[in-house]
Amino acid sequence: MKLATYESGGKVRIGSVTPDLASVIDLAAASAGRDNGAFASMQALIEGGDRALDLARRTAEDGAMAGDFLQPLTAVRLLAPLPVPAQIRDFSVFPMHLRQGAVGARKLSAAMAGEPIPDVEPAAELAPHYRERPVYYITNRFSVIGPEAEVRWPRYSRYMDFELEVAAVVSKTGKDIPVERAEEHIFGYTIFNDFSARDAQMLDMAGMLGPTKGKSFDGGNALGPWIVTRDEMPDLDSCKVEARISGRSFHRSNLSGRMFSFPELIAYVTRDETLHAGEVLGSGTVGGCCGLEHFRFLDHGDTIELEVEGIGILRNRVRRQDA
C-alpha cells in the first residue's frame, strides 16, 4: 500500500492511495463502525502493528470497490506522511557521496574565504571508519514538511542545497535487534529531501558536534509523498532515482552500492538502545544527488523534484525570505 497523510475539509486524515495514483481512500471514513482508532493518524496506524495494517488493507479494498470514500488527489493537500516522527536519524551510506562531497566541501570552503576554487579530484578510497560502522546524526523532527510545501531559505545562508535520500519508517519498538530480524521492524519507505544550508554546515561541523544550523531550520526536512509499505517496495538496490531542478534533470542514479543495508542500520542503532515505532532512518545522500558534489547550488524559486522508483515523486520549492 501507499499510505498518505492529507488535509481535506480542514481536517487531517490518513488514506490509501489507489494504484493509479489518482485518488485516496479515507481509511477512517471507510471503516466506520469498525475499530478504527488506528486510523486517527499515521503514528497510530504504525503503533497498531500488523493487525492495524491488515485492517487498512481490507478497508482500502472495500473502499475502492464502494467508491464512496474516494477523493481525487488533486482535491486534497498532501502532508508529510509522518508529520512529526518519533525521531529522525540520518545516516551516510553511499561512498560516492562521501568522496565527492569532501571535494565539494573543499571548494565551498575556498569560496567562503574568497579564495580561488581548487581543482581537486575525489579520494580513491574512503577513510576506514566509514565502512567499519554507519555514521549518523539526529536532526530536528519538528521541522518536517510534505510534498509541494515551500522551503524558506534560511537568512543566514548563501549556499542552499538539497539531498536525495530514501528513508525507512520504523514499525515497532525494539532493542538489541539482530540483523536477521531487523527487517521486521521496517514499516515502509518514503523519500527524504534533507535540505542543507551548506555554508552554515561548514562552519558548524568544525565544532565536531554535527551540522546543527546547517540542517536544523523550519522546513528543512521534506518527507513524502507517502509511505510505501515494506511488502510492496521493490528490491532497493534495483531502484532507479533521479533529481530534477526546475524541470531539468540534475542527476540519475540508483540505490545500489550502499555500505550498509537498513537492517544493518537498525541492528547498529539498537545496540543497548531502544528504537521506537515511528522513527525515520535516512539513508544519506545517494551519490551525485546533491549540489555540493557538483558545486552547483540552488537559486531562489527553484523547484526540486526527487523521484525514486517504487515510491513516487517528492516536489518542493525554495524561496528566499528577503526576495
Question: What does this protein look like?
Answer:
By secondary structure, the protein is an alpha+beta fold. It folds into 2 domains: 77 residues, no CATH class; 234 residues, Fumarylacetoacetate hydrolase, domain 2 (Alpha-Beta Complex), CATH 3.90.850.10. It is 23% helix and 32% strand. The protein is built from 9 helices and 21 strands. The strands form 4 sheets. Strands 1, 2, 3, 4, 5, 6, 7, 8, 11, 13, 15 and 19 form a 12-stranded mixed beta sheet that branches. The protein has a 5-stranded mixed beta sheet with strand order 9-21-20-16-17, with no helix packed on it. Strand 16 and strand 17 form a beta hairpin. The longest helix has 18 residues. The protein is globular, with a radius of gyration of 20 Å.
Summarize the structure.
This protein is an alpha+beta fold. It contains nine helices and 21 strands.
Mean pLDDT: 96
Q: In the residues, how many domains can be counted?
A: 2
Question: What gap, in angstroms, lies between the N and C termini?
Answer: 40 Å
Structural class: alpha+beta
CATH architecture of the largest domain: Alpha-Beta Complex
Please, what is the CATH homologous superfamily of the largest domain? Fumarylacetoacetase-like, C-terminal domain
Rg (C-alpha, Å)? 20 Å
Question: What about the largest sheet?
Answer: 12 strands, mixed
Amount of helix: 10-25%
What brief labels describe this structure?
12-stranded mixed sheet, 2 domains, Fumarylacetoacetate hydrolase, domain 2, alpha+beta
Write the layout of secondary structure elements.
Elements: E1 2-8, E2 11-17, E3 23-26, H1 27-30, H2 42-47, H3 49-66, E4 70-72, E5 77-78, E6 87-91, H4 95-112, H5 129-132, E7 136-138, E8 144-145, E9 150-153, E10 160-161, E11 164-170, E12 174-175, H6 179-182, E13 186-194, E14 196-197, H7 198-205, E15 221-229, E16 240-245, E17 248-254, H8 262-269, E18 274-275, E19 279-282, H9 291-294, E20 303-308, E21 312-320
